[in-house]
User: What shape does this take?
Amino acid sequence: MSFQSELAEWMASRYGLDLAVFGQGAVDEALGVRCRAIGVSGVDAYVPRWREEADEREAFLDGLLVGETWFFREWPAFQALSDWLATQPRRFGPQSPLRVLALPCATGEEAWSIAAIVQEGGLDAASVVIDAMDINHSALEFAERGRYPQRRLRSQPLSRWTHVLRAQEGEWMEVDGSLRGMVRFIEANAMDRSFLLKRDPYHVIFCRNMLIYMGGEARSQVCKTLAACLDQDGLLFLGHAEQLPSGLGLVRTGADGAFAWRPQQELQTPKPAGPVSRPLPRHSAGSGPAGCMSRPVPNSRPAVTAAAPQTLLRSGPLAEPSPPVRVIPPAVDLEAVRQLADQGRYLEAFKRLDSPDARASLDPEVHSLAGVLLGALDRKAEAMSRLRRALYLAPGHAESLAHLALLIEESGDAAGAGRLRARLADPAGAAGP
Assistant: This one.
């Protein structure tokens, strides 16, 4: 068995992760980082260490899983959480705390964001338990420190959250002590079904942008586990590029863009709405977080014309107004990449989008074009990963929706492709894939 196959089997069996989705460039980069860190000359010399040392295997995985996130990412989910809390007056307290699961929690921004929303809903640390879980030990250590660059708020003003995020010198900010008692960071594996089922049911579960990196069987198992862990009156939040399988008894709920699910019986026995002591104010135009953007990012010209669908995206009002996203300059010359692609030089064009800087870019155009090129090179799993990365950054990115729908349809998932095309035709009312 080749090392690549061994690596893929280990990731799939232990964590349910699909190595192909990460892309060969990201895998090679993570291997290179570990080779340099332990002072070996190359992958051949590294393999014995990886096989013999559990700590080294975990260090490699930590490097591969490093990702970019930010506070209040995809704002409609947090507004939906606030709205739901408003329907639960006097339900939670020290004797019956609100229980929240954030999995995976990465470097903690999502867990602290949840804590901030819950606090604005009138609950304190004595009435809330937020279990923030991840397999990445170094990410958990970072999260526990609760200290972040201010850019992790993106275009949302820090002044909106100064009661929970304290500005520090050097463009840093620190989580206020009032939130720290709410969150506990736990090293845990989403594939460990018995560990999760031993815990009391959760009223709210955030599991966003993890399922897209998993194989089909593992994804199904985790979804069943999440459904079993959810309280009968609870809410489950997924990422905008994720969908639950049928048969779990959960249905979509909440505003467009929240990507929330609840047990089906909730439709038959809704709880009466009631006031809360400190409701979360809706933001006026210019004050909402960047994460709620659901319109396509403008493109000066069409990208590679690899059987591009002709459906056009219809712009509409956002569920939660926000200021324009501050776009970071692209890591590469996209026009030069498109020129190479137009000449049929797909591999050469893609290599310009496979550098560490390009893969870490926050510009959805970079990842969308990379996905189109990978599709033209018949590297479909990697193509879907880059297109989903583009949609992670810009949920309404029209070109990414169109090309991802084609790839998903080719893989045999007609229903998933249909959901993507519904979003393409009507982003204000369509469900996620």
